[in-house]
Amino acid sequence: MPSTPPEEAIFRRLTGAAPADRAEPPNFLRHVAALGLTKTGDGLADVKLVLSWLMATLGAPGALVGLLVPVREAGSLLPQMLAAPRIRRLTRRKWIWAGAAAVQGAALLVMAAAGVTLSGTLAGVAILAALLVLALARSLASVSYKDILGRTVGKGRRGTATGLASSVASAAVLVFALLLIAGWVDRFALVIGALVLAGAAFLGAAVVFAGLQEEPDAPDDADTSLPAMAAMFGHLRADTQLARFILARGLLTATALAPPYLVLLASGAAEAALDSLGAMLLASALAALVSGYVWGRLADRSSRLVLVFTGIAGAIGMLLAVTLGAAGLEWGLPGALFALMVAHQGVRVGRSTHLVDMAPEDRRPAYTALANTIIGLALLGAGVFGALASLAGPGVTLAVFAAMALAGAGVAWGLDETGGQT
Which fold has domain 19-413? Predict the structure, then answer.
């Protein structure tokens, strides 16, 4: 009796399922490896924490530092509607993702070079320009990935792949955070080294993903004119589940927007601990480590319920933070931050799995692009929460975010079930 190939044995162990075909186990492992590398790179070059700290250290103006998150989010989400129909014309889409990963790796290496050769405004402009290139490449990777995942890994195993990659990547970020906290290595040198490693991780992911066994798909002769792009919004009328999903996802962005306001809520010694680069990264990495794989397995059973539970959990974490702050118990805020990041990890895994599973195969890139474009537009208005925090305080802002998360859970409850193995 022939022995089971090692890739299949690992696949069965991780998923608890039989593969749909001989190509699925190695494809599954390549997805885990490539995503693990890119998620590691994302953690080592975290925009909200690492790049913000680097630009501030280099003396870049605060206005440029404030552009980091908008450039990263808008650049990676808004172009996707233009890219989606062009990607559907290709018979193999893995090359889009691999090429985009390589470009992101090169952009990170440029940031590292700018950090050691430039300072002040010039350094800030160079890092922002590289970040814009990275974000645009990421938009291509994002709009192509869900379609590739859906065609190379069976339903019921996709959430496991993305969740496992998150847990694997968190280990590397955890080491980075501990090194920052320990202070054994000069912090500036450590951050520059992390950017170089992040660039290498993305380049490695491109090589891994290029080996994916992707069967050629019939090219879609999609109309790429602007009227056709606008017509993509017709999917919202034709598929009410898509509209409900996008609404739920938009409300659940509260779990992503809330952490900086939780930090603002802290004071005294708690603020010093929370506001440090290492402590923030540590909380994020631990949250991904303990929850990524679990959320992935649960998402393969019911991504709908994952979105419901994480919305409720995120709201509880935010309300706990508000309560602790009001009671003067700031020492408990790191725990609330950790709980919030665990919930956010579940939102990320749940929304990705649900969209891949719910979308018809021929409309998956279009659904992905439409959802990301709408969310990108919504995030452009996120500055209103900063104004609210300055007027009413971070506690009120967190309470608003908690209400959004609960509303997102309620909207997600009405989604159809898409889980189950095929």
Answer: Growth Hormone; Chain: A; (1.20.1250)
